[in-house]
Design a protein that fits this description.
Structural class: mainly alpha
Largest sheet: none
Radius of gyration: 17 Å
Low-confidence stretches: none
Distance between the termini: 22 Å
Helix content: over 70%
Number of helices: 10
Shape: globular
Mean pLDDT: 92
Order of helices and strands: HHHHHHHHHH
């Protein structure tokens, strides 16, 4: 039941990983103007990277489905944040304009993996009897992470901690969550 899931410590370990893509992606999309100005990119360069992200999202959604069919969602779980960690490091350290394309490619890989993985993970871990109630809690947490990301990172920017530094912290979050999972 939902109450049992909320008492399960493993659920919170899962949330540590599941919330990362929503938090990080929304943060970057919300603060893209800041990043573009910080790096001196043409504003259209970031927009031109969205099709790269979309293509890699679709490709890796399909690829992840094959991985899940072969190995199961729980075995794929520890690895799905690695592309997001690499994307974060790329966004933090690669300053040439082509770096934004690498970042968006890796973000799309992460989105593709997570979108397919999350559909298979919850029934595999908690069964299907109370799946709707369990997914409601998870999606609510994802919405909260999506809302917190831009505000928290914006407050840190106002305190002099730029997005590049924050992206390195987010990479650490992804690596720590991968180890936990």
């Amino acid at each position: 039941t939902r109450a049992e899931v909320l008492r399960d410590p493993f659920f919170y370990a899962l949330l540590a990983g599941v919330l990362a893509p929503a938090f990080l992606g929304t943060t970057i999309f919300f603060h893209q103007d800041y990043l573009v100005n910080l790096r001196g990119y043409d504003p259209l360069a970031f927009a031109a990277a969205f099709p790269v992200m979309a293509a890699s999202t679709v490709a890796f959604s399909l690829f992840c489905g094959q991985l899940i069919d072969r190995f199961g969602a729980i075995r794929v779980l520890p690895f799905f944040l690695l592309p997001l960690a690499l994307a974060s490091v790329t966004g933090a350290l690669l300053e040439p304009v082509w770096g934004i394309y690498v970042f968006m490619l890796l973000l799309g890989v992460s989105y593709g993996l997570s979108s397919t993985l999350f559909g298979a993970l919850w029934p595999e871990v908690y069964g299907v009897k109370h799946l709707g109630a369990i997914r409601a809690v998870i999606l609510s947490a994802i919405v909260v992470a999506t809302a917190l990301g831009p505000g928290l990172t914006g407050a840190l920017i106002d305190r002099g901690i730029g997005i590049p530094q924050q992206l390195l912290w987010m990479a650490g979050w992804c690596l720590g969550a991968s180890l936990l999972l």
